[in-house]
Design brief:
This protein is mainly β. 9% of the residues lie in helices and 51% in strands. It has one domain. The protein has 3 helices and 13 strands; from the N terminus they run αββααβββββββββββ. A hairpin with a 2-residue loop joins strand 1 (20-21) and strand 2 (24-27). It is globular and about 40 Å long.
């Protein structure tokens, strides 16, 4: 994708990477999910999950920045696994701003990070979360950690649940 961007005068067309239905871009595979790395920062886009997507074979995959809306449609993203000693805002979505996330389950997560850590969202600003649930393990050494959202500003939560999360103090060696 980077070479496409570089070879096209630093522009990408989302239609070349994701199919669209009724104004929503369809997420069906891990590869589709990775397109949010390039297009998730666009606030004019809506992404729609169409089935469960396991991240078991994709450790360290998370979306660092998200501004578009994400519809989970009741599906699950299991097996999120991220170890990030040098980055804050870690979760399935790292930093989410001006967005809506609904009907999504993130289960069996395992995250090791230091600051602003949540299974769904590491840090949020002006976000609405509806009908979402998480479970898994967070190991961290500082603060602002939660089962759902690590650090938040202006967040609306409706029918959300973070469960079975074990948070432990860990001595992280940074060097």
């Amino acid at each position: 994708m980077f070479l496409d961007w570089e070879n096209n005068d630093y522009n990408l067309n989302i239609a070349e990477y994701l199919s669209e239905s009724e104004g929503e871009y369809i997420i069906e595979t891990v590869e589709d999910l990775t397109t949010l790395l390039a297009f998730g920062q666009r606030d004019d886009l809506v992404f729609s999950l169409q089935n469960d997507i396991s991240l078991i074979d994709n450790p360290e995959l998370f979306i660092p920045y998200m501004k578009g809306d994400f519809k989970g449609n009741g599906y699950t993203i299991p097996d999120l696994s991220v170890t990030s000693y040098h980055q804050s805002a870690v979760g399935l979505f790292g930093y989410v701003i001006d967005a809506n996330i609904n009907n999504l389950k993130v289960h069996d997560a395992n995250i090791v990070a230091q600051f602003l850590v949540g299974i769904l969202i590491g840090r949020s600003d002006n976000v609405t979360i509806i009908n979402c649930s998480t479970n898994g393990c967070i190991a961290e050494s500082v603060n602002n950690t939660s089962r759902l959202v690590g650090g938040e500003t202006r967040i609306l939560l409706y029918n959300v649940r973070g469960e079975e999360v074990f948070t432990e103090e860990t001595n992280l060696s940074i060097g």
